[in-house]
């Protein structure tokens, strides 16, 4: 884990403000350290934010918040901790006995935000923190003299990527009615099962079943005589996950030669295998073996049996079918 310390000298007293990035607890909740809060601090300054992943985080809205990211700030163990969250991952927030929707909170965030240097918690922490930072061999002097910064702190071993979590589904991302490709949700986990940032090369392979013709005494069952599975697609992408609080990134893989909406001899389920090569950490491998290639539709199934196509003339597709 990498911790970054930012030290600021304020007037005659040196106040250390520490900005640290750290993983969620086992339950995904990070609460302010109540022992370090200033007496009389109003609960209305704090928001409990619920994310799309189900996690919750309680803190104050920081002045760094913008239209792209919500920045939360809280005080814990004598540190001021800030963390950004993409607005798209926010579900709602609760302030005292009021609940804010994501859009309401984003619209009012500028009015609700406050900079860290106005946080009352700093008033109580300033003298003690300055003394701790100075240490027995360091002297925190006034702004009229010099102040010697503390020595860098060893942040410990670098986190190692241990496993890969992948889910896949067919998705439509243009103006026509058919599906356009496979959409993957890729998450890299460390040894504790927590999401972590990595950069590497992703390779994906799609395996689709193709029914085999079976001959009995009187009947021919099936529509195709050939191998039971085909390699329906292969892709390679550069992947970069920057936020270790993220529940993964979305990767879109357009269909290639095979398309389940038009190549009707393909089965309804498929498998997607993903390999992620991370420099210095090896290759992670994961598969989703239950990818629904054609979501069930009684109307489309009947039309396919009668006319050999799953689409109606009024529906626009890229292939015109």
Overview of the molecule:
- Helix content is 11%, strand content 40%.
- The model is unreliable at 1-42, 122-147 and 214-221 (pLDDT under 50).
- The radius of gyration is 27 Å and the shape is globular.
- The protein has helices spanning 102-112, 120-134, 298-307, and strands at 4-10, 13-19, 29-30, 47-51, 56-61, 69-76, 79-86, 90-95, 98-101, 161-171, 181-190, 198-209, 214-215, 220-221, 229-241, 249-254, 269-278, 282-292.
- With 321 residues, the chain is mainly beta.
- It folds into two domains: 4-134, SH3 type barrels (Roll); 162-307, Immunoglobulin-like.
- Strands 3, 4, 5, 6, 7, 8 and 9 form a seven-stranded mixed beta sheet that branches. Strands 15-12-17-18 form a four-stranded antiparallel beta sheet, with no helix packed on it. It has a three-stranded antiparallel beta sheet with strand order 10-11-16, with no helix packed on it.
- The relative contact order is 0.12.
- A hairpin with a 4-residue loop joins strand 13 (214-215) and strand 14.
Low-pLDDT parts are: 1-42, 122-147, 214-221
The count of strands amounts to: 18
Secondary structure class reads mainly beta
CATH topology of the largest domain: Immunoglobulin-like
Number of domains: 2
Largest sheet, if any?
Answer: 7 strands, mixed
Give the overall silhouette.
globular
Helical percentage: 10-25%
Rounded mean pLDDT is 74
Count, helices: 3
Question: What's the CATH C level of the largest domain?
Answer: Mainly Beta
CATH architecture of the largest domain: Sandwich
β-strand amount: 35-45%
Instruction: Give the helices and strands as they follow along the chain.
Output: EEEEEEEEEHHEEEEEEEEEH
How far from one another are the termini? 53 Å
Rg, nearest Å = 27 Å
